Amino acid sequence: MKTNINGIISKFISKEVEAIYSRYNSIPEVEINTIRNFIDKVEENDVAFDPYLSYSATKAVAEVCTQIEDIDFLKFYVVLRSDLRLDVEIDDAQESYIYLKEQGYCKVQGNFLYTDNDIMKELAKDELDTKLQDAYQLAIMFSIEVIADMWIFATSKEEASEQYLKNNNWWSVLECEEPEEGYTDSNGKTIYYCYKSEV
Predict the structure, then answer these.
(1) Which of 72, 84, 155, 168 is the most exposed place for a label (fewest CB within 10 A)?
(2) Per-residue pLDDT averaged across 112-141, rounded?
(3) What predicted TM-score, i.e. pTM, was given to this entire model?
(4) Given CA atoms 99, 113, 120, 101 in this order, what sign does their dihedral have?
């Protein structure tokens, strides 16, 4: 007599559920209280983070965030850990956060966070100034025909930079992916981020 397939699957599911239930029941009270307090803070302050996706991930972030009182910094740190998936020390994150507040942008492990496109366009212009002095970079950025025209018409570096930015996005100049919305701070300002390009 063949055993019912659904019955076999049900027993495996039952055993797995029992194991999961037992594992979560054995979590120390201090640990679960830390996580509960973090979840309360996340939900009360509309932090864009789903704490129920992964217990281990939530535990790792919660343990670091227990002492964070500044909700804007909490949102910033969650973006670094959850959206950008960076392993960042809290002191380094604090330094980057302060720089973001003061300068309107910051760079963390090659990834940018910023408040305004104009700031990033200026950064891209500075990056282009450097690249336009490099023959190898110049050959990558422009076709031979365009380089020839630039030489014939004595195109200045500033003019070449301006033209390049008209035809290309600033994030491609900074070798990043297209920006995404990160979070909204307490002043209603949107903070964006863009990944470092893998190419």
Answers:
(1) 168
(2) 81
(3) 0.79
(4) negative
